[in-house]
Amino acid sequence: MARLANVLLVEDDPTSRRLMAMLLSDMGYAVTSAASGDEAMRYIYSEESCDIVLTDVVMPGMSGLEFANRTRDARPGLPLLLVTGNPDGMQAALDAGALPLPKPISRTRLAGILDDALGPSTGDANN
What we know:
With 127 residues, the chain is an alpha/beta fold. The protein contains five helices and five strands; from the N terminus they run E-H-E-H-E-H-E-H-E-H.
């Protein structure tokens, strides 16, 4: 049996954060949620396990792009997914060394990009 992947979810909107956490949990992932880049950085610098980060690009304070750059410095090689509804955000995510995840997010698209980043069968038992 595959191990459960740990996802750090960074989203400033409480409703979006709750819905995304529920979706990820339903897909079989362990989820830690953070409401800001600063809160997420405390997690990144902790000893807690993290297999992948999913963050919104547009957040007050520290943007998802700044968070991605700081995370790459703190945990090199950690896969990063940047959620964006802006076509320019897609290229910005790639420039930051992250995988872009365009809005709207579907379960199928999310599963595909998580499989690409982590390898199949680390999360969704239905794959």
